[in-house]
């Protein structure tokens, strides 16, 4: 097996392709993909605790991406005290934790004199209070299936592929935390917290099981251990996939860039047949019209692109794809290459899907603009709280 | 002979609770297996059983060793409902664990819906005299406050490492339970005692 590369530097379009490839491979492995669904929103008076990840202030971390500031603050504080015994196991004082939470909520730094176990407890509380656990339920369903696999290699493979389906906010936070926990476990000679111990202490916070039976908890702690042990696999794709990603999909994300590219392309391919050139001309004309009304219907433009060039094998396009249920995913995944045309028409027809979830999604999309994240379990932009209160 | 006796005796369900890393498992393992384990694995849940004679009476103990971490609080009430007697452990070297003792005892009363219940408070790790930060008087004071309305509450200092008072703490808990059962274990345990006197 060749090495893996972290997907941070990929463009959005390529991330989508990586996601599609991951779906395909997971289905080949016989993993059942749960339905994607809308995350629950809760109104909170706090800035960080109990808020969805996207609503929280974040810090850019070199080599990983955007990570919630609370997480960064706690982890960087704890990393100065990696030698303390029983990190994350021993609990801190409740009274002092309350003060620390208030500080973090206001965005203030952690005081140097704060006892380390308080910080660990607050970090665990932050994880527990996330409306969607840091390891989302969909992913934990996939990972639970992974624990049934016999070889570690297979388990890690499923872990790696499953993580690629996540929206980037979740992915970066997960990668950051797990890499940090791996650092903690590397000092286990002194702090006596190797990965299985950390998994047992943090598993329920990370994964938030629905019901607390002994058996399930044991498996969940196993998953947490796996995530910590193979933290560098979170969000990484096999390096040899880069050959399978189609380079010309990229300019699509930027209309202007794409036009330049088209011009360059047409210059280069003067020998292209008349029919092709005509198609391209028509395509460009329509895309110009479309770009005027793009704010209302981005799909029109996109479908035009499909006509002007051979469409890309984008399965879970952030703007066109409906909720990718398991059935559509399994129908689509194995036929990426051949069914480009049909894929295009399907993405058009998906507009008329009238399931309640799709309806609500469209309603939210209209209200909230179109910033969306890439991922199979995609995340809508958080609703502005003020707007919600008005209605 | 003893085997048949142990089978006929109804087991006593003892639940060991306390904050994380205070030595609940060490205490339980020292009692049931007579060994001090050096490994540092956080428990999710473990159960042991042991039969022994206490005051010339056979007792079969089912000891449930629980997780101390906050994450597992959802399981807490579940096993508290099953428990017949509780061993609340804290570490004399850990102030936070001690602070939690009171709230744990209150939780027992709430879950059991009783004002009195057999509870043993154990101050563990007394072999670490140098790191000690909870005085014996401090713990005594806490227990005495509870004893005002719960006569079935007592405090013992233990060391799982040196096996100091390990047997005593479990045996005393069984004695407390027997006393409690003899009095009928009613809600008005304190009242009936007064009227008798």
UniProtKB/TrEMBL annotation, chain A:
<feature type="compositionally biased region" description="Low complexity">
    <location>
        <begin position="346"/>
        <end position="357"/>
    </location>
</feature>
<dbReference type="Pfam" id="PF00620">
    <property type="entry name" value="RhoGAP"/>
</dbReference>
<feature type="compositionally biased region" description="Polar residues">
    <location>
        <begin position="317"/>
        <end position="330"/>
    </location>
</feature>
<feature type="region of interest" description="Disordered">
    <location>
        <begin position="289"/>
        <end position="360"/>
    </location>
</feature>
<feature type="domain" description="Rho-GAP">
    <location>
        <begin position="59"/>
        <end position="235"/>
    </location>
</feature>
<dbReference type="GO" id="GO:0005096">
    <property type="term" value="F:GTPase activator activity"/>
</dbReference>
<protein>
    <recommendedName>
        <fullName>Rho-GAP domain-containing protein</fullName>
    </recommendedName>
</protein>
<dbReference type="InterPro" id="IPR000198">
    <property type="entry name" value="RhoGAP_dom"/>
</dbReference>
<dbReference type="GO" id="GO:0007165">
    <property type="term" value="P:signal transduction"/>
</dbReference>
<dbReference type="InterPro" id="IPR008936">
    <property type="entry name" value="Rho_GTPase_activation_prot"/>
</dbReference>
<dbReference type="InterPro" id="IPR042869">
    <property type="entry name" value="ARHGAP11A/B"/>
</dbReference>
Automatic annotation (TrEMBL), chain B:
<dbReference type="InterPro" id="IPR020849">
    <property type="entry name" value="Small_GTPase_Ras-type"/>
</dbReference>
<dbReference type="Pfam" id="PF00071">
    <property type="entry name" value="Ras"/>
</dbReference>
<dbReference type="GO" id="GO:0005525">
    <property type="term" value="F:GTP binding"/>
</dbReference>
<dbReference type="InterPro" id="IPR005225">
    <property type="entry name" value="Small_GTP-bd"/>
</dbReference>
<dbReference type="GO" id="GO:0016020">
    <property type="term" value="C:membrane"/>
</dbReference>
<dbReference type="GO" id="GO:0007165">
    <property type="term" value="P:signal transduction"/>
</dbReference>
<dbReference type="GO" id="GO:0003924">
    <property type="term" value="F:GTPase activity"/>
</dbReference>
<keyword id="KW-0547">Nucleotide-binding</keyword>
<protein>
    <submittedName>
        <fullName>Small monomeric GTPase</fullName>
    </submittedName>
</protein>
<dbReference type="InterPro" id="IPR027417">
    <property type="entry name" value="P-loop_NTPase"/>
</dbReference>
<keyword id="KW-0342">GTP-binding</keyword>
<dbReference type="InterPro" id="IPR001806">
    <property type="entry name" value="Small_GTPase"/>
</dbReference>
